[in-house]
Design brief:
By secondary structure, the chain is mostly helical. The protein is built from 7 helices and no strands.
Length: 171
């Protein structure tokens, strides 16, 4: 069963923001479906309580798939390739956020600072390998360590940005 989202930015609102006037016909042609179906993805889905003309669209279906994996495993890790695939299609990256530390604001900032220092060290090691030790070459282990540190740094920075957003909204 497809669950309804309760937060702002629901899937049908996202679809409504993305699809421009006239897109429904072209997308329907490409997907071999009706323009009415495409337009219905931009309206609230029908429930037992109301008579909306919306339908659950592709984003709702992805959300349901991810929720199913999370329910099965207790964590969404197995669904991460979906995020990575979508991010690549959009020219971006998907990096899972690390677990929030419960030690308070100072601990969060210390953790972010430590992660960035470790990332700087990993980047320096790759720079030294590429430019000095074996110019123009990086071994698999050096690349793997650096990529992991970069992903951890991205996650820590997003966590800090989310923390800032939360604190600004409270003041």
């Amino acid at each position: 069963m497809i669950r309804r989202e309760l937060k702002p930015g629901r899937d049908y609102e996202v679809m409504d923001d993305v699809l421009k006037r006239g897109d429904a016909k072209e997308l329907a042609r490409q997907l071999s479906c009706s323009p009415q179906l495409i337009r219905s993805w931009c309206r609230a889905p029908e429930t037992a309580d109301d008579f909306s003309t919306g339908k659950f669209g592709p984003l709702a279906r992805l959300r349901t798939l991810i929720a199913m994996v999370k329910d099965d495993d207790g964590i969404p890790d197995r669904a991460f390739p979906i995020g990575q695939y979508i991010a690549r299609q959009l020219g971006g990256v998907f990096v899972p956020l690390p677990l929030m530390c419960n030690g308070g604001d100072s601990e969060l900032m210390n953790r972010v600072s430590d992660v960035l220092k470790e990332t700087a060290q990993a980047i320096e090691e790759v720079r030294a390998a590429w430019c000095e030790k074996s110019p123009g070459k990086i071994d698999q282990n050096e690349g793997l360590v650096c990529r992991n540190e970069i992903d951890e740094a991205i996650g820590a920075m997003v966590q800090l940005r989310n923390w800032l957003d939360e604190k600004e909204n409270k003041s």
